[in-house]
Write a structure and sequence with these properties.
Elements lengths: L20 H4 L5 E6 L6 H11 L4 E7 L15 H9 L6 E5 L5 H7 L3 E4 L13 H11 L3 E4 L7 H8 L5 H12 L2 H12 L3 E6 L1 E14 L6 E14 H9 L4 E8 L3 H10 L4 E7 L7 E7 L4 E8 L4 H4 L3 H8 L7 E6 L8 H7 L4 E6 L19 E5 H8 L6 H11 L5 E5 L5 E4 L7 E3 L12 H14 L6 H13 L11 H12 L1
Helix pairs in contact: 8-18, 9-16, 12-13, 16-17, 17-18
Length: 513
Amino acid sequence: MIAVEKNKTSKIIKFEDLAKIRALHAGEKIVHCHGVFDVLHAGHLAYLESARKFGQILVVTLTADSFVNKGPGRPHFTDRIRSRMLAALEVVDYVAVNHNLTAVPVIDVLRPDFYVKGPDYKDRSKDVTGEIYREQSAVEKHGGRIEFTDDETWSSSALINKFFSDWSEGQLKVIREVQEAGGMQKISSLIEQMADEHVRIIGEPIVDTYIFCNPESISSKNPCISAQFLYEENYAGGSLAIANHLADFCNDVSVVFTHGGEDYFLQLLNDKVDARVQVQGVEALNIPTPRKTRYLAIGSSQRMFEITDIRHDQWRQMPAHGFCDLLNQRDYSQGITIVADFGHGLIEESVIHTIGGLKGFVALNAQTNSSNFGFNPFTKHKSFKYLCIDFREARLAYHDRYTPAVDLVKKIHSDLKYQSSVSVTLGPNGSHYFPPGEGAAFVSPAFADQVVDATGAGDAYFAMTSMLIKMKAPPCMVPFMGNVFAGLKTKIVGNKASVSRAQFIKALDTILK
């Protein structure tokens, strides 16, 4: 017999019990539907009723909460509630929650005779995830067939935004501005245009080592935390993370840096850097590749402490002219150069001078962190078209503790003679963006919830907004799209993965419906 969850209708089954359905219903045609089903509505009912006509047993699987990538506030209802709603429908025979990113593992277990999608999937080019092709392949591999219904559809996202919206007044204001500036149609055009951009990223690679532990207690001999080692993961951070983010958007992405030549780092380049990224690394003898080792409590991902392996004096140990020559080898006057200055010794002395002379669109982020505190202000750079820093970095550069955020951004913009675009990020409070000229700032709240790890969110914002400004996107879209992109990044532990083009488009479309 199929196991059922306690206190629930027998229609709701566990994922592993999907494999038993075929034996229980020998000789009957099994139909499978899959989706989020966040707000159950008339369109869903029509779709499920039409799907049921292809066979005798209708199995509906829904995406687990942690795998719903539709932006902040989604799903509106938990998978437990969504399961109960679907199970209440007479037309549905079984319901299960899919704790996988796609429907393919479900199809492989269930082996349905028919996998049925709604009419909006008939034009497969509109499926930004490309999953429809993988789903069809999985169905046909097991002898099944994919079918599409013809019923009228409604959008759960549109209904949620209209009747269940939790957006703040600030968020609603920005959403209206973006819609008036062209909305999703303009955004889609901008994202398509990114493919033709030539992007070069200059900056330190950072190895983010995450050691996951189980905190046990305070040591009996010393007042320190005792923790059990569980496992270790290495992620490609710094300039490599920015390159990985943009690889899914741009056809020509290169990253230029120095490194220590360690075996583990060369392996990380091979395993963790997107194959579409052109890597131009110069080995710096006796200078370690910047590495930050963080010890985290498993489950909560709370950091217990951090160890860094960083030296800032590489150009005192070796000449910089070879690296400078590499920066001048290719003409980027028509492309975009993204300078990610993490303050770990790469972008100093003659390298700063070389970068200051680069032609074309140069975007700059000069970061303050625990390893360079106070020694890496953006003011050491003299030439750039776009500056992106956080509020603390702005305060340190100006030695200013108290000026309100928007006034401090105005001062930066004025000191740059209004020739450069400026973003100042405010963490959970969003960002302020000034385009060139003496106009007002465009303010956007954050679009993030259920933050897993904020590491790299600023880099994600910087990467996306640099591209948008280069392409002359409507100013209101710059901080909005940057904050949505950064919000998606906060759902990822460290730089374990990048925000994909498909995830980004889906989140934007959901918010703007």
